Amino acid sequence: MKDSQPPHIPLIFERLSEEEMHERSQALLERMKGRRSVRHFDSAPVPLEILRRCIEVAGTAPSGAHKQPWTFCLVTNSEVKRSIREAAEKEEYENYHGRMSERWLEDLKPFDTNHLKPHLEEAPALIVIFRQSWTPVEDGYGGKQQHYYVQESVGIASGMLLNALHESGLATLTHTPSPMGFLSDILGRPSNEHAYLLIPVGYPASNCSVPDIERKNLEEIMVEIH
Q: Where are the domains of the chain?
């Protein structure tokens, strides 16, 4: 069998000076140091085109065998947001009243969280990320196109989305009301998709406050091997 070479195109890449690399990386670090998880949102609407563009940025993430195993549901409908909140609070009540270990609950105390999630309605938009375990195709492989490294691929795309939203001037919260099967039901997603992450998006409320926490420094998170 003759090997087939898929088509390739020239890489477009701008090689920066070391000085500009330092400037860009330092500026990005300072901006990202200001990124915080927000649980109190202003109800003011955000430009939908900005949200669409940020999702498009997330869609540029690398993925296993370039299968792009993700679906991003952008929700702004108030009734759908209310349904999501009600279902999430039902699951979270069970988490806070039996599913979570005592140690887990103790670790959450500094963040003053509970099963009530008003931000799921207050935020003008929710982005629900679904991971695709496979896609239906007609290719002689049982009607399913397998996806590879799905968790890793969708995790990378989620991080890029959070970064894009922050860079665009919006606040976010990563929410995982496990189990999350209700999101598939409410949003009518097919059986090959599974909820991965729920992200409320918007502007912080005028009286918004966040926990006084410190991030680990570079020496605590990096090991250099020369």
A: 38-205
Gyration radius of the chain over CA positions: 20
Tokens representing residue 22 in the block = 């330092």
d(CA 13, CA 10): 9
Q: Which two tokens mark 200?
A: 């409320």
Task: Kindly indicate the confidence band of residue 141, based on its pLDDT and cuts at 50, 70 and 90.
Answer: low
Number of helices (H), then strands (E), belonging to the chain: the values are 8, 6
pLDDT at residue number 137: 82
DSSP, res 141? S
* Residue in the block written with tokens 């991971």: 131
At residue 181's C-alpha, the angle toward residues 174 and 36, to 5°, is 5
Q: Alpha-carbon distance 167 to 27, whole Å?
A: 11
DSSP state of 150: H
User: Which stretch of DSSP H or E encloses residue 63?
Assistant: none
Q: HEC states along 198-224?
A: EEEEECECCCCCCCCCCCCCHHHHCCC
CATH number of 38-205: 3.40.109.10
User: Is this model's pTM higher than 0.90 or not?
Assistant: yes
